C-alpha cells in the first residue's frame, strides 16, 4: 500500500525536482545565472527589456543610469546569455535572450509578492 503525502490545504503541490543532482558543470552554470539576478541594477534592466527590444539610450532612460554604467551591465548580461544584441546602424539593440529569462524573473517576483502578502 502506497501512502500519499498530505498536501497543505492552501498551497499547490510543488513541481517535481530533477531526479538527480546536476553535474558540476551544470551547477557552476546555474550558480552563474542566479548571480546575475543577485544585482538590483541588472534586475531593473531585465525588467525594462521585458517589454521588448531597447537601445542602450532607451535602457539608460528607463533605469536612470549613465551610458557607461548600462554598457557595463549589458556586457555582463550578454556574456551570461541573459540578453542578446542586434546591431542596427550605429545602435546596439538589446532584448531578452529567451522566454526562460522572463520566467525566472516572474517566478522570483511572484515569490517575493507572496512572501510580503503573508506578513
Automatic annotation (TrEMBL):
For the keyword DNA-binding, the answer is: yes
Domain HTH arsR-type residues, every copy:
22-116
Superkingdom of the source species: Bacteria
- InterPro entries in alphabetical order: ArsR-like_HTH, HTH_ArsR_DNA-bd_dom, Metal_resp_trans_reg, WH-like_DNA-bd_sf, WH_DNA-bd_sf
Q: Which UniProt keywords apply?
A: DNA-binding, Transcription, Transcription regulation
UniProt protein name: Winged helix-turn-helix transcriptional regulator
